[in-house]
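Working notes for the structural subgroup meeting. M.R. asked for a predicted model of this chain before we commit to crystallization trials. I am recording the input and output together here so anyone reviewing the notebook later can reproduce the run.

Input as submitted:
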Amino acid sequence: MSPLSVTAARAAAIAVMLWLMAQAGHTMFLCAPHRAWTRVHSGRSEVVVERSERIARADDAIFVCETVHRTGPIVWHLDLECYCAPAIMSPERLGDAIGGSCTVDKLRPRPDDDSGACRYGRCGRHFE
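Returned structure, recorded in token form:
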């Protein structure tokens, strides 16, 4: 193996390690769904989502779902997120589909509703 190939292999390995460390740091310290889980389970707040670009569609309900945040076989932590999904979907079916457990927060979300865990008709994710 030439010295240039060895240097290139080392540089690639270092780049991959830096990327993995950045991903791990982001997942552990900056994950918004985990911060919501921590806030709700510590009793500091009941709000999961108050601001988001995603808005419930006309036939959506909003569900609060707890999931395990993992990367392959590595389990990082628990997340809590608001999902917009068709109102005809049951919490059990949505939970099975996303690999978590869900409860209904709002059957008919409105943009002016400031109650519950998922406020103002906002959700963190849409589910078809």
